[in-house]
Amino acid sequence: MLFGVPFGIAIFVVTKASGDTIPAALGFGAASGLLVGATVALGSRKPRGEMRQVLEALPAADWAAARTATWRGPVPTHPEVRAAALQLVDLRLDRLKRFRKWVVAVFGFNLVIAVVNIAIGNWWSVLAALAWVGVLVDQWHAPRRLQRRRQLLIAG
């Protein structure tokens, strides 16, 4: 839910700046924040548990190295850390496959709404459109990035 609070505040500010009334902006910001916060909270519960199971096989001092190795940095030289990082990459790829269509549909719809708002003269919607485009580009690029990282970890 904590992710939803700043999101709701940002939506409130953008909605109010675009000329809506305070009650309308407050209601829209609160509803948006609750929706995003609940989605993030519910969507991250299971993956955190799966990640914890992988990481618990390592000493706590190596957890950060394994998590970092899933995205960037040098390939870990310690075989157990590299194996854990590879498992984490596989978990992220699996999760991405399961939720990617829904994420693209939801954020694509929001992008369409933002473009319509821009077309009718609500220039503050440019900020929302840029955010939605950022999410969509990330969803398009993430599987390729993770596959490249997976290959690096396998090659060791």
Features:
single chain, 156 residues, mainly alpha, 5 helices, 81% helix, 0% strand
What would you say this structure looks like, in words?
The chain is mainly alpha-helical and 156 residues long. Helix content is 81%, strand content 0%. The protein has helices at residues 4-17, 22-55, 63-69, 79-119, 125-155.
Q: Summed up, what is this model?
A:
81% of the residues lie in helices and 0% in strands. The chain has 156 residues and is an all-alpha fold.
**Percent helix among the residues?**
over 70%
Determine the structural class based on helices, strands and strand pairing: mainly alpha
Number of strand elements:
0
pLDDT < 50 stretches: none
Shape: elongated
Tell me the series of helices and strands, N- to C-terminal: HHHHH
How many separate helices? 5
Largest sheet: none
Query: What does the radius of gyration come to?
Result: 19 Å
Mean pLDDT: 85
- Kindly report how far apart the N and C termini lie: 38 Å
Q: Strand-residue fraction?
A: under 5%
Note the topology.
Layout: H1 4-17, H2 22-55, H3 63-69, H4 79-119, H5 125-155
